[in-house]
Design a protein that fits this description.
Strand content: 15-25%
Number of helices: 17
Helix content: 25-40%
Largest sheet: 8 strands, mixed
Number of strands: 16
Radius of gyration: 25 Å
Shape: globular
Structural class: alpha/beta
């Protein structure tokens, strides 16, 4: 069932009409609506409910590309973040320049903008858009800004436009009424809609009103609330939009708990990247490497511990790695998500223990075709698995792709996938890393056993010690 959005129970639920009217009746708010691509769906609400003259300084749509370039400058693409930012900056500056002397002491100016690709006549395009608002929270205040990326999932252009209008009103109302509570603002963005109609896979807060907001936590909130199946941020903490980050690039993903990132995690990525980069379809191309944490993993002990999440994010950042938070526990769902954003090759690296779990049929009871259907989906676009060996700490024996214990009824399937090159052994591993297990490293950190420091990258050790992460206590 698609998730239906309801605001926090502590906050009164008001509909789109009431939200637009509240904004119009607030005499402090005055600004511009600039919309490109799907008509003027957002500003229409503010005209429709009445009292729009008190809010709308200007409404426009520079639909023609030449006209748009003349106003906002040239852009490589018209539905992209760069174009949206140019629109926000230009329109907001224009309002302040023209109106600050006349009404600047009593008015908080704003500019709302969107640039959208709604369903075309043939239904062949990617239906998505960028939307944002640049605003003053109070008269004469420094600027604040919210930018988000939406995917429109309705099959009809008219329904997509309707949904876009509702999200836009929610964003404008949230920027004014909930800028002091950004988590509630995020929660309100799909009021009046459901995740079967709109997905928000990126949101970024910036400026004076949001100076204390951690952008990584807002990305986590998108996935936690079900507004998106996944969200991304860079090692710097800056929010990433998947379709731009993955655009035309081969992708290599490592899934893990990363509590903390250990030498073995980096060795696994190194080994897989060496093999993956040798493929004819990948040679000479820039491979995007990503560390992924699932919501299942973050909720393994119940509710999400935000300090624990930030600890993981920080140690991954210390390794210079972008982070993907996903709600795709099943690997075939992760594969489908990545395939949506690139036509290049995709690879996932995992330990032999994870590969054993991948063949456990209990995880596929929800699929009519069971394990066969799951693997059909996983390897649909020639995805590659690169498997890191597992050393038994007692016997010293290595578990690899060649001696993996698979149920008798699945051995032929396993052999077929191996022979096809879907499942590949990593034999270029570092011997020193095979004895490192993250759960043991975590235990050593908590116990004050200093030997853990040699098991993680130096930068990771510094972050853990400087911020007392994972219950680290200095001697």
């Amino acid at each position: 069932m698609p998730l239906s959005k309801q605001s926090n129970p502590a906050v009164e639920m008001i509909d789109t009409h009431q939200k637009a009217l509240q904004v119009n009746l607030d005499s402090r708010r005055y600004g511009t609506f600039a919309e490109i691509g799907a008509g003027q769906e957002v500003v229409r609400w503010f005209f429709r409910v009445g009292a729009g003259a008190g809010t709308i300084a200007k409404s426009m749509s520079a639909y023609d590309m030449t006209v748009s370039d003349a106003i906002y400058g040239r852009a490589k693409r018209y539905v992209c973040r760069e174009r949206l930012q140019a629109m926000l900056d230009y329109e907001h500056a224009l309002n302040i320049d023209r109106l600050k002397d006349v009404r600047g002491d009593t008015t908080a100016f704003f500019a709302f903008a969107d640039t959208v690709s709604a369903r075309n006549y043939r239904g062949t395009n990617e239906c998505h858009g960028w939307m944002g608002i640049k605003f003053q929270a109070h008269p004469r205040d420094d600027d604040s800004q919210i930018i988000l990326h939406v995917r429109m999932l309705d099959q009809e252009a008219a329904l997509q436009q309707e949904a876009l209008g509702i999200v836009g009103v929610n964003l404008v109302h949230g920027a004014f009424a909930l800028n002091h509570e950004p988590e509630l603002l995020v929660d309100s963005l799909l009021d009046g809609l459901s995740t079967s109609r709109i997905e928000i896979d990126m949101i970024e807060f910036s400026g004076i009103a949001f100076r204390h907001v951690d952008k990584r936590l807002m990305s986590l909130k998108l996935v936690e609330l079900g507004l998106s199946g996944a969200a991304m941020f860079a090692a710097s903490g800056e929010v990433l939009q998947p379709s731009e980050f993955f655009y035309r690039k081969p992708i290599l993903v490592e899934r893990g708990s990363f509590r903390p990132v250990c030498n073995v995690n980096l060795d696994m990525l190194r080994c897989a990247n060496e093999k993956f980069s040798q493929l004819p379809s990948v040679q000479g191309k820039e491979v995007v490497q990503v560390m992924e944490v699932t919501m299942n993993n973050l909720k393994a002990e119940g509710e999400i511990d935000l300090r624990d999440f930030l600890a993981r994010a920080d140690v991954m950042a210390a390794c210079g790695m972008p982070v993907l938070i996903s709600d795709y526990f099943q690997y075939y769902r992760l594969a489908a998500y990545l395939s949506h954003y690139t036509k290049e090759s995709i690879a996932i690296t995992m330990g032999a223990g994870s590969l054993i779990q991948l063949f456990d049929e209990k995880y596929y009871t929800g699929l009519a075709g069971g394990v066969l259907e799951s693997f059909g989906r996983l390897f649909k676009n020639d995805l590659k698995l690169y498997v890191y060996p597992l050393r038994d700490p007692e016997s010293g024996e290595l578990t690899t792709c060649d001696n993996l214990e698979i149920k008798s009824e699945l051995r032929q399937l396993y052999g077929y996938l191996k022979d096809r090159g879907c499942i590949n052994a990593l034999d270029n591993f570092s011997e020193d890393c095979l004895s490192i297990f993250s759960r043991e490293v975590l235990g050593k950190i908590k116990a004050g056993d200093e030997s853990w420091e040699s098991m993680v990258p130096g930068e990771v050790a510094e972050v853990i010690k400087s911020k007392n992460y994972f219950e680290y206590q200095p001697a």
